UniProtKB/TrEMBL annotation:
This is Trp region conserved hypothetical membrane protein. It comes from the Bacteria. The chain crosses the membrane at residues 46-65, 72-90, 121-139. Keywords: Membrane, Transmembrane, Transmembrane helix. Residues 160-219 are annotated as: Disordered. InterPro entries: Trp_biosyn_TM_oprn/chp. It comes from Microlunatus flavus.
Amino acid sequence: MRSRPLALGGLAVGAVLALVAGSRAWWRASGTGVSVSFSGTEASAGLAQALALVVLAGALLGLVLRSRGRRVLGVLLALAGVGVVVLGVTRPRPASQAVQSRVLEVSLADQFALVGTPWPYVYAAAGLVVLAAAVLMAARAGRWPTRAARFERAGVPAARTAPAVSDDPATLWRSMDAGVDPTVEQDPPAGPPDGAGAQEVPGRVTMGPRAAARTDEPT
């Protein structure tokens, strides 16, 4: 099914893109001789990174769950994708006290301007990828094959072709003493060809065609 690699791959790509975008500078405080930046994780108090990690963990979990679990997981990851989009669009600003303390660490300037960067919108785009992949998982997960089903299908031919082995230990020992492998099917013993030699019947002896021909020859 193409929907499976698309969904799981989309979740993984969206999660990695969100992690990268969340670690980049979302805001820069610039002033006289000073410039400090705040990443999306810092500006959102860690929420940007947490949402990306949730999506990445969900993509890995989708590899082992069954169809019903994948549907539920798809709904939860869709909500996480919405959260990523909302967080990227709203672009939370860092607290003013945090900005002032960061500026004072590198300069004594008290005048600065807080300027945003495009990285929050990249983060929001990653959320759209996650949302689309999660919706695809919730809608198509019931058609994806499970690992258990693959193993069951692979085991049926082997079960049909396996030779029958006796469970009686005494029978196994006797077979091995006689030089016979009990795990290998033995061909039935071949009988004498039809019409060759004498055939014993209770009470009389019946001669085969070849033996009868010999008795008719003159001595």
